[in-house]
């Protein structure tokens, strides 16, 4: 066994077949994998083995999650993409899974399939990637080198054996259940973070405490009423939970001012939409949450802000949040005024239906309230 900087290296002398000691190590790995009962253990064994048996500088274990590649585990000299999801069409593991074949890339800077912006921040220069289950890929295993190099046939062979063994081990443990539970945990963590952020905004403006959360619930329910698929409804709810996040940059005394605002003060408050966008624009939410929030004060006829967008220029998600925002605000008490109430809120929305607010969205809310006795939770 040769020692590399950070990992031990097992390499064969024959370029066409794994050497005996590599085979022995592989057999041990196969035995370990057959005795594992959970996905995390499979991924841990594989990522360690990939580095040890190929002598590479990094290894990733990628799971297919619908149309996304989930970089579930890694073992590398410096961090790569653990915990991130990328659309299948933009990452190399997606290419490997869609084309059901391995790939070797000697120099990532000379391959069109590589999203260079994502790789530039990493040590990676060369890579090899194989699908897990070639006929119907459920994931991929990759190994990476920090220098330009051509992986040997033996190294690729080792990757194939590990991928095949991982596939069997994953079948044995019912990996789909594990992926679902990991995804649930991740979503719960995202929700927790967003709610915390929402509360931080509300600390500045306690009068509107719970406003964003309730707009989130109402937006979700309206999207369901419109027949949107559950995932899209869920992402909309998340966007709505932080739709006023930019208010964190507005002076508290302005947000809570009980008397009428001057035009200058109102102008300052209006900047919260663009500030929300700035805060969230670089966060990868798999949905244009920042753009949706930027548009939540736009109105169909172009009278909204910040850009005076009209009709189809406004995202459907932003149109729903706009209606939910008005409805929630008008049905909630404020210390300086009683709630105008549900009837007044519906009247305002119906009067401006098709002018300020999207007709289909307003109709969905009216159906919920009038026909289904919808009530917003406290
Ligand atoms: Fe707002």
* Beta-strand percentage range: 5-15%
Number of separate helices = 15
Q: Looking at CATH, which topology of the largest domain would you report?
A: Hypothetical protein af1432
Mean pLDDT over the full residue set: 85
Tally of domains: 2
What is the CATH domain class of the largest domain? Mainly Alpha
CATH fourth-tier homologous superfamily of the largest domain: Hypothetical protein af1432
Describe the main β-sheet briefly. 6 strands, antiparallel
Shape by Cα distribution: elongated
Q: Helical amount among residues, as a percent range? A: 40-55%
Assigned CATH architecture of the largest domain: Orthogonal Bundle
Bound molecules: fe (ii) ion
Note the run of SSEs as H and E.
Answer: EEHHEEEHEHEEHHHHHHHHHHH
Which residue ranges are poorly predicted, with pLDDT under 50 across at least 5 consecutive positions? Answer: 1-18
For the largest sheet, list the strands in their spatial order: 5-4-3-8-7-6
Protein name: GAF domain-containing protein
InterPro entries: GAF, GAF-like_dom_sf, HD/PDEase_dom, HD_GYP_dom
Domain HD-GYP: 186-378
Pfam family, one: GAF_2
Secondary-structure blueprint of this entry?
Blueprint: E1 2-3, E2 8-9, H1 20-34, H2 39-54, E3 58-65, E4 68-76, E5 85-87, H3 92-99, E6 103-105, H4 116-120, E7 126-132, E8 139-145, H5 153-173, H6 175-204, H7 211-225, H8 230-241, H9 252-255, H10 263-270, H11 272-280, H12 289-294, H13 316-330, H14 342-351, H15 359-371
Antiparallel strand pairs: 1-2, 3-4, 3-8, 4-5, 6-7, 7-8
Helix pairs in contact: 1-2, 1-5, 2-5, 7-8, 7-13, 13-14
The protein binds fe (ii) ion (FE2).
